[in-house]
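Internal ticket - ligand job 251, NAP:
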Amino acid sequence: MSTQKTAIVTGAARGIGAAVAKRLADDGLAVAVLDLDADACADTVKAITDAGGKAVAVGADVADEASVNAAVDKVVAELGKPTVVVNNAGITRDNLLFKMTVDDWDAVMAVHLRGAFNVTKAVQKYMVEAEWGRIVNLSSTSALGNRGQVNYSAAKAGMQGFTKTLAIELGRFGVTANAIAPGFIETEMTAATAERVGVPFEDFKRAAAGQIPVNRVGVPEDIAHTASFFISEGAGFVSGQVVYVAGGPKD
Ligand code: NAP
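stdout (structure tokens):
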């Protein structure tokens, strides 16, 4: 019987999720690379399999319960029962409060909060059965408040409460739950923000780096490294924590 663990990483077609998926595969896990469009996962899956790892592409909308349940069934059939989940899928719909629509509010809540709930709920039974599991949720420094992101910051603060409650409920089954709160990470999400505010991405990154104590912006691998720690065997006594991966202190 294979002892290889199976992980599901959501929003793993690109950006932080892709880096996390590759890192977990390097760590020896079989990885379900889940994103809205299965075809968009091809590059991440190829990078993993070319490096000798095991991965499958899974198309699902995390905000849709039926879609998530079907995706998890596919993962069980193709890779094995998942006991690691990284809730990374995310979107932004930034605007100042007075211009923000209810649709922008709901869309952000649906992907981050309902999405993490749907995926974690579908996977927890396999963790409980295995008496072992690791849940990693993507929060953000925006949880502390960020102009133009009243929806996103509320969702990312929500991810922290979600994480802490999972840690309390599931700890007795050998399951840990932790959150990573990244600062500025260079991805398509931050590139889109630069475009929205009309600043070239290189200038946007330089300005951000100037505000960060380690004097650089983050890269997806910075987050992947932290996820790798949280899912490791040795991190079994670390649960309900939020780690700000932001090149400096945040609180
Ligand atoms: P990204 O480059 O925009 O990637 C996000 C991925 O999630 C995309 O592939 C996207 O697919 C997918 N996705 C969106 N909605 C989905 C849904 N309903 N179901 C399944 N997949 C969905 O973002 P990123 O910068 O890597 O961010 C990853 C996570 O880190 C997010 O939770 C984000 O909020 C968080 N974060 C990022 C930063 C940063 O500076 N980049 C900072 C703090 C926190 P499509 O391409 O099809 O939309």
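Auto-summary: Residues 102-130 form the longest helix (29 residues). The radius of gyration is 17 Å.
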